[in-house]
Amino acid sequence: MSETSPHDSASWNRRDVLRTAAMAAAPLVLSDAMTATAKDGDDPAPAFAPLIVRQNTPPNLEFPFATLNSFITPTPSFYVRSHFPVPTLNEKTFRLRVEGEVDRPLTLALPELRKLGERNATVLLECAGNGRVFLSPSAAGVQWEYGGVGTAEWIGVPLSAVLERAGVRKSGVEVILEGVDTGESRAFPNPFQTPGPIHFSRSVPMAKAQRDVLLAYAMNGAALTPNHGFPLRAVVPGWYGMASIKWLSRIIVTDRPFQGYFQTLDYATFERRHGNPVLVPVTELQVKSLIARPGRGEVVPAKRPYRIHGAAWTCDSQITQVEVSTDGGRTWNAARLGMRNEQNVWRFWEYTWANPSPGRHVLMARARDGRGRTQPMERDPDLRNSMISHVLPVEVFVR
Ligand SMILES: Nc1nc2c(c(=O)[nH]1)N[C@H]1C(S)=C(S)[C@@H](COP(=O)(O)O)O[C@H]1N2
Ligand SMILES: [Mo]
């Protein structure tokens, strides 16, 4: 990645395409690294930016957002969010159960599941706690900076096909997705105790379940890795990551809204109803943009064009505008938007800071989507410890 030679949207999109093609075949991952070494004739550069450890066990690992340069996040750089120990599962003995308000409860082995249909989807996942370290007062949960987010290519079976095979009854209003992983929370830093060990589970309304939820077995052209849910996970496009259940082994169709731990006590925000704050589950991604470079505290060379760049995303819409401020929000300038403009992934953007003047500067980026939704400038405290989408100022020094 070179910020000294500002390149246009077209060039970084071409590069995205090349990288994506290389990722499709697993063995090419290695040759990619070797090519880089041979060509540069310099110190061998790592092929992928290593993840930042926020917690070792269970693994909670952050993508170093300043290294953003590939539209598809390589799997070794894709953030990992796990609440409980990572289960070790055997693909041969693995079964997916479907039960509840269905005419035909199912127990499916992976080959049977795969016969129900295949679909590819490029989908962004962002943890609802991404950016939490910037909240004050500080809030419970993994202290992510910018990198609890990534975009991957997923292959799987549409949830709708599984529901159709099982025969959803009229009484079914929600679909609960449950992971194999279990654990218990006793105290801080988790806000509430669990009643002994529980599974990680979440629900989606029937309409969403039938529309675009994918049961994925592949990520970026290879089988899921254990950290990302091997052998099967849900991918819920446009929603915060907590709904995309990993190690998915049970689907329960229910006749009433699910009120599980991760839906009511955690991953829930206050919403005002007649002025009363009521807890509602976190669902859709909020419009948000982030600056990748320059990073916080970075020294920018004076009097030379500098490429400020990053990514922006939203739910079920497109990013139509990103504006950049280099003076702490007093004036704003339109950024150029990347050519890849799809729903429920990010849109790259860049802005050339023509003539950075020596001194301290506060950079900001703010996005707008096709539904006219804009990124907030201020944090709404009703959102508790989730959905951190307000503009995050980045202080840099020009010398
Ligand atoms: N079974 C299970 N699924 C899970 C989780 C988990 O802890 N257990 N974490 C969720 C959260 S909060 C997020 S943000 C995403 C992260 O997916 P990733 O680790 O593949 O990036 O997985 C979700 N699915
Ligand atoms: Mo998350």
Provide a short characterization of the protein structure.
This protein is mainly β.
What does this structure look like?
By secondary structure, the chain is mainly beta. The protein has 2 domains: 6-281, Sulfite Oxidase, Chain A, domain 2; 288-398, Immunoglobulin-like (Sandwich). The protein has 6 helices and 23 strands. The strands form 6 sheets. It has a 5-stranded mixed β-sheet with strand order 4-3-12-7-8. Strands 5, 6, 9, 10 and 11 form a 5-stranded antiparallel β-sheet that branches. Strands 16-23-22-18-19 form a 5-stranded mixed β-sheet, with no helix packed on it. A hairpin with a 7-residue loop joins strand 18 (319-325) and strand 19. The two termini are 21 Å apart. Mean pLDDT is 90; it is low at 1-41. Bound molecules: ligand MTE and molybdenum atom.
List the helices and strands and how they pair.
Elements: H1 9-24, H2 28-40, E1 52-55, E2 60-62, E3 95-100, E4 106-109, H3 110-114, E5 119-126, E6 149-158, H4 159-166, E7 174-183, E8 198-205, H5 206-211, E9 214-219, E10 222-223, E11 233-235, E12 248-254, H6 261-264, E13 268-273, E14 276-281, E15 288-293, E16 299-300, E17 306-313, E18 319-325, E19 333-334, E20 336-337, E21 347-353, E22 359-369, E23 394-398
Parallel strand pairs: 3-12, 16-23
Antiparallel strand pairs: 1-2, 3-4, 5-6, 6-9, 7-8, 7-12, 9-10, 9-11, 13-14, 15-17, 17-21, 18-19, 18-22, 20-21, 22-23
Bound molecules: the ligand Nc1nc2c(c(=O)[nH]1)N[C@H]1C(S)=C(S)[C@@H](COP(=O)(O)O)O[C@H]1N2 and molybdenum atom.
The ligand Nc1nc2c(c(=O)[nH]1)N[C@H]1C(S)=C(S)[C@@H](COP(=O)(O)O)O[C@H]1N2 binds next to strand 7.
